[in-house]
Specification:
This protein is α/β, with parallel strands linked by helices. Helices cover about 45% and strands about 20% of the residues. It folds into two domains: about 5-70; about 95-280, Vaccinia Virus protein VP39 (Rossmann fold), CATH 3.40.50.150. The radius of gyration is 21 Å and the shape is elongated.
């Protein structure tokens, strides 16, 4: 089999599955560059060459992993977020473009001052590490319950921040452990916000990500409600709370906030115009 034949075969195989990608050929080329450590130029130059038996086996194995629904980012071993490349893999939530809005909002808050930030769910460490690269004076406390995600956050801290003392990573439950380290000027989170019903309807590749980072009760707001309850314990007066939400949760969340008498809030839209980030100032 030539490389060109493998690409054509793989494109057809991918297109027969309900997987997410922008362009099937580009998707196949990403798999090839990762699996064989080739560049895009290598693929162009070698497209008419016959694959060795060893290379063909490697490529077929990687293709089968993708066809089985394993996320491309897990196969590649990384995802780009803000301006950095973060290692990710099974057990770790994959960073997404929409979450960069949280980074932007933290960077704008009391710019130039040293602030203390607490984060529920470090994941790969993408939010806190991205902020510290822009504002090294920020003191960031990230809490991660999932051991697999904790390991990836540690790796990315060492690799990207050179294990900066400003990024403090705790393996444990945010709600029980954060009060001992507070209070904080800012609390942020990309929490679980997928309802039980939505979990059943998620694409196969998203279901490969940790349920602990996705699922949040009947309406997807269980963890967000707990965060709102927890703010008086950990957030300073005039503190800022930033939280990613599901695009279908705006109305219910607005009702929840008004019931709790939180007057100073807005829900920011992402680049697609969908409700995405709750921005709440606590008096």
């Amino acid at each position: 089999m030539t490389l060109k034949e493998f690409v054509t075969f793989s494109q057809k195989a991918l297109e027969s599955k309900s997987l997410h990608y922008a362009d099937s050929r580009q998707h196949v080329e990403q798999l090839i560059t990762r699996a064989l450590d080739w560049s895009s130029a290598d693929i162009l130059l070698k497209q008419d060459d016959s694959l060795s038996a060893a290379h063909e086996k490697i490529l077929v194995d990687v293709l089968n992993r993708r066809l089985a629904g394993e996320p491309l980012q897990y196969i590649l071993g990384f995802e780009w977020f803000y301006r950095s490349r973060f290692e990710v893999g099974p057990g770790c939530l994959i960073p997404r473009k929409e979450t960069e809005l949280i980074v932007d909002e933290v960077l704008k808050h009391r710019s130039g001052e040293k602030i203390r930030v607490a984060e529920l769910g470090a994941g790969s460490g993408n939010i806190g590490i991205s902020v510290l690269l822009e504002r090294p004076q920020v003191e960031w406390h990230a809490f991660e319950l999932n051991p697999a995600s904790f390991d990836f956050a540690q790796k990315n801290q060492r690799k990207i921040l050179n294990q900066s003392a400003s990024y403090r990573l705790y393996q444990g439950d945010f709600f029980s452990e954060s009060p001992a380290h507070g209070p904080y000027d800012v609390v942020v989170s990309n929490p679980p916000y997928v309802s039980f019903k939505e979990m059943e309807e998620l694409p196969l590749e998203v279901k490969k990500e940790p349920a602990l980072a996705l699922e949040a009760g009947e309406d997807g707001l269980t963890i967000i409600r707990r965060l709102l309850d927890h703010l008086p314990v950990v957030l300073k007066s005039k503190g800022l709370f930033l939280c990613e939400i599901g695009s279908n949760q705006k109305q219910e969340l607005e009702r929840e906030l008004k019931t709790r008498k939180f007057p100073d809030f807005e829900i920011l839209s992402d680049l697609s115009g969908l409700p995405r980030i709750l921005k709440l100032l606590v008096q």
